[in-house]
Amino acid sequence: MEKSQYFDHLVKTLKKLQRLSEKELGRIEPVIRRAMASGIQDMNYLESITEPLHDLVFSGVGEGLYAEYPDYVESLIL
Questions:
Q1: What is the pLDDT of residues 54-76, one digit of tens each?
Q2: Cα separation, 72 vs 68, whole angstroms
Q3: Cα dist. 75→12, 16, 33, 41, 70 in Å?
């Protein structure tokens, strides 16, 4: 396989991972937003629904939601 073929394969793979990450965010974002809008304070539940978000942030997806969530948790503590 030539370098250009490897590169093309890598680009396709990364695009597929991006699409999968965006699909996962589409699945978990409504759950997290409902919990915040409802004022849920059960930290065990909140941690369980946001755990997948941590992985997505490192792939560059979900950064906006991840930025909002700590503010919500902080508001529960104060």
A1: 777 776 777 788 888 888 888 88
A2: 7
A3: 41, 37, 15, 10, 9
The residue length of the chain stands at 78
* Number of domains composing the chain: 1
pLDDT digits (tens, 9 = 90+) for 3-29: 788 778 878 887 888 888 889 889 999
- Which range marks the domain in which residue 7 is found? 3-77
- The pTM of this model reads 0.69
Query: In one letter, which amino acid is 46?
Result: L
Give kind and range of the element (H or E) at residue 40.
none
Annotate 8-36 with b (16+ C-beta within 10 A) or e (fewer): eeeeeeeeeeeeebeebbeebeeebeebb
